[in-house]
Amino acid sequence: MLLCLVDVCGVFKHVRPSWRKPRASPGDTMSDPGDNLRRLTDLYRTMARIRAFEETALEAHTAGEIPGPLHVSIGQEAVAAGICLNLRRDDRLTSNHRGHGHAIAKGADPKRMMLELYGRDGGYCRGKGGSMHIADFSVGMLGANGVVAGGIPIAVGAAQGLKMQGSDAIVTCMFGDGAVNRGPFLEGLNWAVLFKLPVLFVCEDNGVAAFTRAESVTAGPGVADRAKALGVKAITIDGNNVMQVDDAAQIAVAAVRRGEGPHLLHVRTYRITGHTSTDAAAWRPKEEVDEARARDPIARLGAVLAERGVGPNELGKMIEDAKAEMADARRGANAAAWPAPAVAFEDVQDTGAVLWSKSH
Amino acid sequence: MVEVTLIEASRRAALQEMRRDERVWVLGEDVARGGLWGQYKDFLGEFGEQRVVSTPISESTIMGAGLGSALVGQRPIIEMRIFDFVMCAMDELVNQIAKIRYMFGGQARPAVVVRMPHGMWRNSAAQHSQMLEAWFAHLPGVIVVTPATPADTAGLLVQAIRSDDPVLFFDPKDLFWVNGEISEPIEPIPFGVARKVSEGDAATVVTWSAAVPVATKAAEQLAAEGIKVDLFDLRTIWPWDEAAVTASAKRTGRLLVVHEAVEVAGFGAEVVARVVDQVGPSNLKAAKRLAAPRIPVPFAPPLEAQVRLSPEKVMDAVKRLIAI
Fold first, then answer.
1. B256 assigned to some structural domain
2. Chain B positions in Cβ-Cβ contact with residue A123 (cut-off 8 Å)
3. Which of A84, A282, A287, B265 has a C-alpha 20 to 30 A away from that of A332?
4. In what side-by-side order are the strands of the sheet with B167-169?
């Protein structure tokens, strides 16, 4: 089990000492215990909602209600919740193929997300994107991406655009451990340093690139060292400890927003489920998955909250509320209409668009 | 009106639009020093290093960062240096730029211009001479611009920069030093409207990009011999002026498409297929293509000549067409 926080670059001492030895949790700050408890409760609720959304979607998929595969992030919720709690609405986010949690944590509406998973009218992408392409520009969510590392160049360009506009909004770029072996990772980090762009790179390292253990296809000491070689301030943290993610994100986001250039969080977590909704991931030893379940980020935060006096009823209610919200989203999606066939011909381009006719 | 080279026409068009709209910026290798051909000469001094950005040789990120900036409201001119290098940015172009508006249900407007100087020039071999514009006509979501004159380059580049659609702009390398008149200020030219170069009843000849001056010369020589043809410069191959070409072919009954790119599965095949479909096979006496053999572009001049068009080849093709 790796619960370390490693400042591999040794550069965070220049940022803030707390990078080297962060607080055990934001709740430890005694100045405003009420605020911190609220913060932890927010994190718990967000993780519960992400978990409930994806479990509901998996059930719906198994029941044949959702076409196409789902890439779920069960077990990884602390990453989305801990990062996004530190972002403003006008901060932008690029995500990857496993992005339901990122979207929910950034403020997207699960009802419209579920409609999109179902391919129904009213979905975020009008039924043209599905699970892998959820976007909600109104909350700064610039889209999930079906191509590994596809979001990295987009993120640095969005940051460059914001910088040109004199905005203090930042861009957070979520990608997995598989992305660090693609060219855009090198290009994008190099670029972000050269132009000193306001980007927070987040490598959500679940240890497995599709069906292959990441360590078996990744040379060298890992993503944080690669970032360090390019002059990106980087840190490795435990992504199953949401308080640690929140703490690191808080510091990194502030530094990026102050104009200190790109930062990278290497967040270690574990994908409890398979690559897609149809993959049982049976090739992994049961003990490994059990051990990961024992580090479940939601249960761990639940234990902390219980210690701080949040009763089991209150915790249970947050879980039940999340399940009810997503069950409602499922009912809504099941009842929603399919998009009209002509919708397939819309949103292609203004000039040179092919028009729908019944002969199609 | 002022007479300038084609590359200078493109410089003036971009200059005009960057002065008009401060959201427009240009990124690519060596653009701050004026670009490979001076197409951004003096831009850095006027617009500053935030809007005229020389980048690393990182094609994926040149393309993707341009897109990212568009998603927050900027209007990038993405300079690919030479068309062939776009192969290093195909994910960002094909999977991201061309799809992002559609996949996200209309939330995104990727208002980017991708400039890709293409085609044969002076013996530059297989990786610096390609003409693959047909690939992109095949790609839903983009506009494909293939100008051949200074005026069209200027007007279409202005239109491209103002377009909310992503525009793939194929600058014709071999014609950069050709002179022609442009208007001041430069007025936009709409996409999908062909330019009629010459008129005649003997045949309909359709072409674009660097093949235009070759076909023009052929048409002039044919006219001197008494063979007059309708010659169209499509200017944009998506959208393309199907109505004008179809109407002409209906009248002449003979169609020849001339392009520099490889004939097999080139855009000429699309033109012929659509015209046959629209006019009806019984109303066409002949429909042919004149284009490159399916070989890479070779280096040595006599080898390269195997791929190059010439007025003589076009004249011969027209004569064979009207003999049918």
1. yes
2. 105
3. A84
4. B52-54, B24-28, B75-79, B113-115, B167-169, B143-145, B236-238
Rounded mean pLDDT for each run of 10 residues along chain A, 360 residues in total: 43 37 43 80 98 98 95 97 98 97 98 98 97 97 97 98 98 97 98 98 93 92 97 97 98 98 97 87 89 95 96 97 98 98 96 84
Sign of the CA dihedral running B316, B321, B323, B324: positive
Distance CA B267, CA B269 (A): 5
Query: What structural domains does chain A harbor?
Result: 12-335 (3.40.50.970)
Within 238-297 of B, beta carbons closer than 8 Å to A belong to 238-239
- Nearest Cα neighbor of A89 from A103, A75, A74, A106 is A106
Question: What are the DSSP calls for A301-355, one per residue?
Answer: HHHHHHHTT--HHHHHHHHHHHHHHHHHHHHHHHHSPPPPGGGGGSSS-SSSPPP
C-alpha–C-alpha distance, residues A138 and A112, integer Å: 13
Residues 219-238 of B with CB under 8 A from A: 238
Shortest Cα distance, chain A CAs vs residue B166, angstroms: 8
By Cβ distance, the residue of A124, A129, A156 closest to B68 is: A156
pTM comes to: 0.94
Residue A350 has its nearest CB partner, among B65, B70, B165, at B165
Q: Which helix (H) or strand (E) holds A242?
A: helix A242-257
User: CB-CB: which of A129, A159, A187 is closest to B104?
Assistant: A129
For residues B203 and B93, membership in a common domain is answered with no
The tally of domains found in chain B comes to 2
